[in-house]
Amino acid sequence: GDEQVSIAADELCYNAFAEFAGIAWEDSKYDYSYYLPTEDSWNNRGDREVLCTIFDRDGKVTGTLENVGI
User: Residue-wise over 24-33: b if at least 16 C-beta within 10 A, else e?
Assistant: First the structure.
C-alpha cells in the first residue's frame, strides 16, 4: 500500500543522501524528499521508480548539490 511504498522510499533516499551529498543527512543543512509512482502508473505500467531529491531548506538552489559536503 501507499504507506509501505513511502516507508521504502524514505529509507532508500535517506541511505542515498550521504553518498550523493558527501555528508550525512543529520550533519547537513540540506533535506531530501522523493517522488513516487502514481497509482495509475504503478497499476497500469509497472512503474516502481522512486526519484530522490535534495534541497536547501532555507531557499533556492542553483546547480547540483552533489558532493556539497566534501
Answer: ebeebebebe
